[in-house]
Design brief:
The protein has six helices and five strands. It is of the alpha/beta class and about 170 residues long. Helix 2 links the parallel strand 1 and strand 2. InterPro entries: CinA-like_C, CinA_C.
Length: about 170
């Protein structure tokens, strides 16, 4: 997966509306996106009804101290890892007392870090019905990788909500 389709402003407004209509709240836990994900959410009118907050845990130790990510997990795998992304999403839910937590962690570039190529990104979403994770391999410069991670995280939340709606109708 080299590129991520961008979630446009209309689709993002629909996501905020869906969260509002379902009475769900959301919080973010971010590393490589540096607060860009929560900023993208709050750029949308009506976001104040659903966005509880965001934690930018750029430093590895902040993932543990702020979000409760396992120090042993971080020591074992480093921050660019599926379990770290999942724990970050859970940590956002707990920290902000939200229904949904969404996280981003990875390597924005320009070069490799922690043994991973630039563009390697893990996103996760913790929600009332469970957790979802996606591993991304994004192309482009640092800004493109960060933007792609933000869009992928928003799309993941939308997909989780779509799945929950279809499951509720069964």
């Amino acid at each position: 997966m080299g590129t991520v389709i961008e979630m446009n402003d209309v689709e993002l407004a629909e996501l905020i509306t869906t969260l509002t209509e379902r009475g769900l709240t959301i919080a973010t836990a971010e590393s490589l996106t540096g607060g860009g994900l929560v900023a993208r959410l709050v750029d949308t009118p009506g976001a104040s009804h659903v966005v509880r907050g965001g934690a930018c845990t750029y430093a590895v130790d902040a993932k543990a101290s702020v979000l409760g990510v396992s120090e042993s997990q971080l020591a074992l795998t480093g921050p660019v890892d599926e379990q770290v992304a999942r724990q970050m999403a859970r940590g956002a839910r707990a920290l902000f007392r939200s229904d949904i937590g969404v996280s981003t962690t990875g390597v924005a570039g320009p070069g490799p870090a922690d043994g991973f190529d630039a563009g390697t990104v893990h996103i996760a979403c913790a929600h009332p019905r469970g957790e979802e994770h996606r591993l991304l391999h994004l192309d482009g410069d640092r800004a493109a990788v960060r933007a792609g991670a933000i869009n992928a995280a928003l799309i993941l939340v939308r997909d989780v909500l779509d799945f929950a709606a279809s499951g509720a109708d069964d």
